[in-house]
Amino acid sequence: MKESDRERLLAARDLLGLGESASLVEVRRAYRELAKQHHPDVAAESSGMSMPELTNAYQLLVDYCSNYAVPLALEEMAPQSDEEWWMDRFGHDPLWSKG
Fold it and tell me: What is the pTM of this model?
């Protein structure tokens, strides 16, 4: 992953108020709560966060969570063998899984 992509991902994580790891359910829940607060039909004045900005951050995290099974943190994961690394990320795919 390029550094600029990582920075965008971390900015999106911070915008939605998520921790270093979050499930897809937690990402959706955070987005819905913020959307309720900052939607233009609800927020009387500018709250500093726009819906397009919030939606773009949400979409970036959903795409990332859908494609990769890794934490949303800068720290490196514990060392793994090549096979463990591959299965953690792509083991759910029927083409690459052992089952």
Answer: 0.62
Supply the CATH number for residue 38's domain. Answer: 1.10.287
Q: Model confidence over 3-62: pLDDT tens digits?
A: 888 899 999 999 999 988 888 888 999 999 998 888 877 766 656 678 889 999 999 988
Q: What is the 3-state secondary structure (H, E, C) of the chain?
A: CCHHHHHHHHHHHHHCCCCCCCCHHHHHHHHHHHHHHHCCCCCCCCCCCCHHHHHHHHHHHHHHHHHCCCCCCCCCCCCCCHHHHHHHHHCCCCCCCCC
For helices 24-38 and 51-67, give the axis angle rounded to 10 degrees: 170
Q: Range of 12's domain?
A: 3-90
Contacts of 5 (CB under 8 A, 6+ apart): none
Is pLDDT larger for residue 5 or for residue 76? 5
Q: How far apart are the first and last CA of the chain?
A: 28
